[in-house]
Sequence to fold (594 residues):
Amino acid sequence: MKYLRNTLLMILAAALIMPSPLVLAEGVSGATQESKVDDVQTVDNSLKSAEEVKDPVVDKEQIDSNSPSQSSENSEILLENPSTNDSNENHVANEPPKPESNSESEPPKTDNSDKSTEENAPILISKISQDKKYVEIYNPTDQNVNLAGWKIEYYTGSGAKTVGKIFKDEVILANGFLVLSNDKTLADAIKFDNNLGLAQNDGSVVLSRSDGSVSDTVGWGNNSKSTGLPIKGGVKIVWRCFIDENIIDSKFLSGKNFNNQEVEPYSRPNCKTPDSKSESPKELNKCEGLKLSEIASNVDEQFIEIINSGEKTVITTGCKLTVGDSGVRENIGDIELNPGEFLTIKIKNTKLKLPKTKGKVYLLDEAGSKIDSTEYEKLSKSSSWSLIDDEWMQTFMITENSENIFKEYPDCQSGYERNVLGKCVKISVPPIEVSCPAGQYRHPETGRCRKIEVEKTITPCKDGYYRSEETGRCRSIASAAAKTLKPCPEGQFRNSSTGRCKKIASTDGIAKECPEGFERNPQTKRCRKIKSANMPTVGSAAAEVKQVAGATWGWWVFGGVSLLAVGYGVWQWRWEISQFVRKICESIKSANGK
Fold:
């Protein structure tokens, strides 16, 4: 208990003496902030803006004139020595000592936030060693580039693809190299995700950006992918050469350099020094002003249309087209395009394979940087993917070498027309009217032929005839006069229903009352004798015979029914009756015995 109490007292004393965590945090944050400010100033002095990215080929005099300023600005990061005999490792100056790192550690990361430079950076494949199984890439720009999302793929001569490396957050320094290999003897090499075959006879290596566009392609052998002339197969190493500090994008060599020395990673093997200014490397064509205009992929004859959207004439030397991630680049050729002029590239005349309904097309400059791109999907038959009013859309109006026009629906087949709902419906053709025969006409309601009604002329009746108003027929005047009703005599009138003359009723015509004991018959209107109610009625013999016969038949029926009832009762109570008769007989016997 004593030791526990002493321990608690010591902890309390230490808590009172030590400063609070808030004070410590403020001190640390202040120091960190100061160091960050220094770092930011150093990085700002060593990097240029993305808009001032240097072309892959720069004049030597320009580099010499800028070299003092560059050396003073790059106070923190020193690039590799351009000499082929110098050390192959990256040197870092003016930094505090750091613990030893593994030879396979990745290059330092950077906070360079210029995404446009990183997305479109013209990173090149500088060396491929089929013998030592490594791939070297080079950053010809003055900016560090974050390779997150980039990838290196290897294609065999048969076309099989192997993904060698998908970069996560690796950074390639400005004007620096990055070597990828699983050979631990190579300093600072980054491991492949899986081993690459790198055959010596045929093969290709494709470097793709994070958006899927191809940054560079190198191939060797007859069946390889290549941006320029194919490199002969059966080699141990292929490499791009430099003239002083500048890489030659279009020149790929194989084997040893011109000094008959081995080409090592992280080195800049020199090309032949030009003897005159005419042989000096020229600046790569940036193909400024060129844009994709129309992609006709789902048509019988596929094509890609390009337009010069700038204000200056453009020569397309070195400008390229590529589709998807195939790695195949097609040079447009040496064509002069005036402002607003179109250029159509027929796919059948190129090595490109344009998917019909879904794909992505890139337009590249001579250095391999993306100028323009577009992606299409669900493209209908006989339609094109066109740029109309700065917006890509599907149109059914194919406008090769002319301005794009929007058309929402394709043409209907012959005999059909498109209604307001956008559907093709059959064109209603009015029926051809056949003329009616002579003397007939077509009725407007029924559409049938009807006989033309000729107005009838009434023929006058012959002499001695007249036309009846009721029947419209001619009738004889003589017969009509003979049938004329004569007037009724005086004191009579003509009955309207019978047409006969009838005497007009008078007081003398009123029927007289019948004598006593008589009554007037309502039907004949005559008087008849009233029948007396007390007068006896004499029946006839036949009626009496019928009554007697009916009475006799009734008694027979009654007797028969009664006999049946008695018989049924005797049958039902036969035992009781037999017992009753037995008792009577016994009583009689007993009485006679006494």
Remarks:
- The helical segments are 2-17, 21-46, 60-73, 115-120, 477-482, 541-572, 574-593.
- Confidence is low (pLDDT under 50) at residues 20-113, 274-279.
